[in-house]
Amino acid sequence: GVSAFEDVPGAAEVPVYAVMAAFSKDPSPVKLNLVFGVYRAEDGKPHVLNVVRRAERLLIENMSANKEYLPIAGLAEFNKLSAKLVFGADSPAITENRVTTVQCVSGCGSLRIGAEFLAKHYHQHIVYLPQPTYGNHPNFFLAAGHTLKTYRYYDPTTHGLDFQGLLEDLSCASSGAIVLLQACGHNPTGVDPTFEQWEQIRQLIRLKGLLPFFDCAYQGFVSGNLDMDAQSIRIFVADGGECLVAQSYSKIMGIYAERVGALSIVCKTADVASRVNSQLKLVIRPMHSSPPIHGAAIVATILKDREMVTEWTVELKAMVDRIIKLRQQLYDALHDRGTPGDWSHITRQVGLYTFSGLNEEQVALMMKEYHIYMSSDGRINVAGLSEKVVPYLAGAIHAAVTCM
Ligand code: PLP
């Protein structure tokens, strides 16, 4: 008989996964993968941190550990440590019990749970996203029934922040609207506001009564300093106001596939926080019911041990330094070739990515002629480079820019 699913239309593959598939099929020995936001070592291979390996060994040797279900909100110790990591160990919001934190399925799951909670328990369902932003951001909020709007963020002429546009657009937002902010290492642009600009953004958001929802996927990955990279969030928490924070450990601990993250909601009072926590559990229950334990246990093992935290931050700093060095090498290579255009944004931009300014046709040409794969918006994963391949990339960019 006819399939029950006969009328299911085929969907297009998610664009970055389509590029990945094309990369896998490409037989060229010089092919270069700069698509996904993952850190690679200088040899181009996936990188597992020593401190993570060490934590895993400790977990395996711990004979009193078991694999029974976690509570709906996840590993309590992990939640506490995650809140301390992002808000600071002596944050008044934590000591006053105004923060509720639930373990979620990485950054994505934290954003999704946050979006669902807001759809059910918050009066305003308009969400402002930066233009451009992480490609999955719209999905979390659309799936929860919110209405999307954008605020200006990136200025293609300066390859920097369109601060005036950002302020104008948020000034026009209706009262109570949700504003998604990337805490640091903005994906895909590599452009972050300065601390002074954050302070102005905070004032505007508080003045207009908007609700900030921070996506924090790169804490420590920008400056190498965990406190510095959380500063944007901390100034919002310091004013006593409310916000949501979605944390991801994928990039900062290199545990992408473990899917470890947390959603924190900072409230005005401990009583509100406790009621919010009770409702978060009702949101989670029909979604994943309770989160997986292994990745959260890795993170908790590291974060509760001062010496392991130090080891982690040293490894984090080494990753950041390698990225910064590669930015300089790529800039120098283009500069030395006399490639038309000002490429100084490559070293100005921060975090894992550079938003190269290459257009869709140039990206397509580099894929076809040079087997270099990046997202169609021209975003380059800097950590996918090495000293050895920088000249090849620079040559390809030069060709793409001069012939189109
Ligand atoms: N938020 C931003 C800004 C990201 O760049 C990413 C991953 O690329 C995520 C969230 C999702 O992270 P996770 O893999 O932890 O779900």
Overview of this protein structure:
The chain is built from 16 helices and 13 strands. The protein folds into two domains: about 15-45 and about 320-404, Aspartate Aminotransferase, domain 1 (Alpha-Beta Complex), CATH 3.90.1150.10; about 70-305, Type I PLP-dependent aspartate aminotransferase-like (Major domain) (Aspartate Aminotransferase, domain 2). With about 400 residues, it is an alpha/beta fold. Helix 2 crosses helix 12 and helix 15 (about 360-370) packs across helix 16 (about 390-404). The protein has a seven-stranded mixed beta sheet. A two-stranded parallel ribbon has the order 1-12. Strands 5-6 form a two-stranded antiparallel ribbon. The longest helix is centred in the last third of the chain and has 32 residues, at about 305-335. The protein starts with 14 loop residues before the first helix and ends with a helix. The radius of gyration is 22 Å and the shape is globular. Helix content is about 45%, strand content about 15%. The mean pLDDT is about 95. Pyridoxal-5'-phosphate binds near residues 37, 106, 107, 134 and 182. Pyridoxal-5'-phosphate binds near residues 248 and 250. Its EC number is 2.6.1.1. Belongs to the class-I pyridoxal-phosphate-dependent aminotransferase family. Homodimer.
CATH superfamily of the largest domain: Type I PLP-dependent aspartate aminotransferase-like (Major domain)
CATH topology (level 3) name of the largest domain: Aspartate Aminotransferase, domain 2
Compute the CA-based radius of gyration. 22 Å
Tell me, what's the shape?
A: globular
Q: Main β-sheet: number of strands, strand sense, barrel status?
A: 7 strands, mixed
**What's the CATH class of the largest domain, please?**
Alpha Beta
Helix segment count?
16
Question: What small-molecule ligands were found?
Answer: pyridoxal-5'-phosphate
Give the count of structural domains. 2
What share of residues are in beta strands? 5-15%
